[in-house]
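Structure (tokenized):
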């Protein structure tokens, strides 16, 4: 048997945009929609046109801009909402209207004050009306997983008879357990005629309130669902939705288990769209978040590093390159062993004959790592320079002064002094609207090597113990990605130190003296 293609509906631009604290502009949504199309997403849920004139216009522009992906517009099961959704997507290549109504007892009793029969009548009328405005109609059963199974089956049967092409089973509050969800979807797939004969498809939309969204989505697909609704990075209300990248990662790495299903997703574009979302929203990604977190492909334990040097399959089931991410990283720390240290040194210097145990440097670095959480690359390169193992020019931050300018429209001023390992001295100053912007400007004055800052994020709190603040910086130079993290007490200083670490890494790699 061949693999069944699972339809991917991405709702980053609708449900993801509802994440508290994030607000994507029309132009930003257009950019992300373009990425989603290149990633092979089948249906892009562009927004909720009835919610505001701005949302209507944005959905309209997205619908007119996409060349291959279908466009879906969200609407409550109300004629006015549905008509606005239809008007917004009328120029889309393929038009979907996703209308929805709650089905659970608590929603029927408290929110809607409707009986079962009234809910079905409203849903049927909404489906029939939406059919006049769209090529495909999806009806969502909100809070489906807290709905009586027999009523949910009746809801699916009546709405598909009325013309619904898709019925979306929503675990709206992230309530259900995977085995329960598998049983529910399996029952609906067997008992609802349209699902059984393939004239309509079951869709699953899972929320992550209890951390079960991905597991529930996989359970639903295994039980017969033919469509998965996801968002990039799991963005969405409260705990968010099923993360697209995690679903793709499971289907890629566990082809043995999910041999009967596949998608059209092209995840090599993932890193680029995540950088874009980060720039647009400032979203903070947990270091240990699967696929997207900075530690997802990083290894610090000596045992793990030794295994990874032999074969990446020893401690990883994923290839970061499949997601457009940099290769696995070995991070030097007090947990690292000789193999990891030697590998990092060889990566820095290209000296494949270097062995740390022959120089005594390993114990010194472990002592440093105890104090610094990891081994800053500049410290490692300094010790290698002193051992005569490299002769690159290394730079250190000597002094940093910054302040907010009196005139509010001028932003911040910053002055830096840097010195090199051979005694060179440089000083420069700059002003920009933001403090980090000023730091970037002055660093570009000081050095010929011009880094492209891809992303940076901060963690920690100023009132926490000394050294608790941290910056994570990713930059590119001549098409190659560089990553660094620094710990301390001042975000601006940490940014500068990480920038210098990358400058020094490039210097060591290419033996640049005139940086």
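Design, position by position:
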């Amino acid at each position: 048997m061949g693999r069944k293609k699972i339809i991917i509906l991405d709702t980053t631009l609708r449900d993801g945009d509802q994440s508290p604290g994030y607000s994507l502009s029309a132009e930003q949504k257009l950019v992300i929609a373009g990425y989603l199309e290149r990633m092979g997403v089948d249906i892009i849920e562009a927004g909720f046109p009835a919610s505001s004139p701005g949302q209507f216009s944005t959905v309209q522009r997205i619908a007119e801009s996409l060349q291959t992906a279908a466009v879906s517009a969200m609407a409550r099961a109300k004629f006015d909402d549905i008509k606005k959704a239809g008007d917004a997507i009328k120029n889309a290549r393929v038009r979907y209207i996703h209308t929805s109504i709650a089905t659970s007892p608590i929603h029927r009793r408290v929110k809607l004050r409707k009986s079962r029969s009234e809910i079905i009548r409203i849903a049927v009328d909404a489906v029939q009306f939406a059919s006049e405005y769209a090529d495909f109609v999806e009806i969502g059963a909100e809070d489906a997983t807290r709905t009586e199974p027999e009523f949910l089956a009746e809801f699916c049967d009546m709405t598909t008879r009325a013309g619904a092409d898709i019925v979306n089973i929503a675990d709206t509050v992230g309530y259900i357990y995977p085995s329960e969800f598998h049983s529910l979807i399996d029952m609906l797939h067997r008992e609802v005629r349209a699902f059984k004969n393939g004239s309509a498809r079951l869709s699953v939309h899972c929320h992550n309130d209890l951390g079960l969204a991905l597991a529930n989505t996989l359970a639903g697909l295994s039980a017969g669902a033919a469509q998965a609704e996801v968002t990039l990075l799991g963005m969405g209300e409260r705990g968010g939705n099923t993360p697209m990248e995690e679903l793709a990662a499971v289907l890629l790495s566990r082809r043995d288990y999910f041999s009967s299903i596949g998608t059209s997703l092209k995840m090599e574009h993932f890193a680029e769209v995540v950088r874009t979302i980060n720039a647009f929203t400032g979203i903070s990604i947990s270091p240990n978040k699967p696929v997207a977190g900075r530690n997802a492909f990083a290894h610090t334990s000596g045992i793990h590093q030794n295994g990874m040097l032999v074969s990446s399959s020893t401690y990883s089931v994923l290839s970061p390159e499949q997601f457009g991410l940099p290769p696995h990283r070995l991070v030097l720390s007090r947990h690292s062993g000789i193999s990891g240290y030697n590998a990092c040194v060889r990566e820095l210097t290209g000296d494949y004959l270097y062995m740390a145990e022959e120089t005594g440097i390993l114990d010194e670095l472990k002592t440093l790592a105890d104090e610094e959480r990891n081994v800053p690359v500049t410290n490692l390169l300094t010790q290698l320079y002193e051992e005569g193992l490299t002769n690159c020019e290394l730079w250190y931050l000597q002094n940093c002064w910054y302040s907010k300018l009196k005139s509010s429209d001028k932003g911040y001023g910053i002055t830096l002094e840097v010195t090199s390992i051979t005694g060179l001295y440089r000083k420069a100053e700059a002003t920009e609207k933001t403090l980090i912007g000023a730091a970037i400007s002055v660093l570009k004055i000081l050095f010929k090597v011009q880094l492209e800052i891809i992303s940076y994020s901060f963690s920690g709190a100023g009132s926490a113990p000394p050294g608790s603040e941290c910056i994570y910086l990713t930059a590119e130079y001549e098409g190659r990605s560089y990553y660094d993290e620094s710990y301390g007490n001042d975000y601006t200083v940490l940014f500068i130190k990480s920038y210098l670490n990358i400058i020094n890494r490039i210097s060591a790699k290419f033996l640049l003296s005139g940086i």
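Reviewer-requested clarification: The CA atoms of residues 170 and 205 lie 5 Å apart. DSSP finds 17 helices and 18 strands in the chain.
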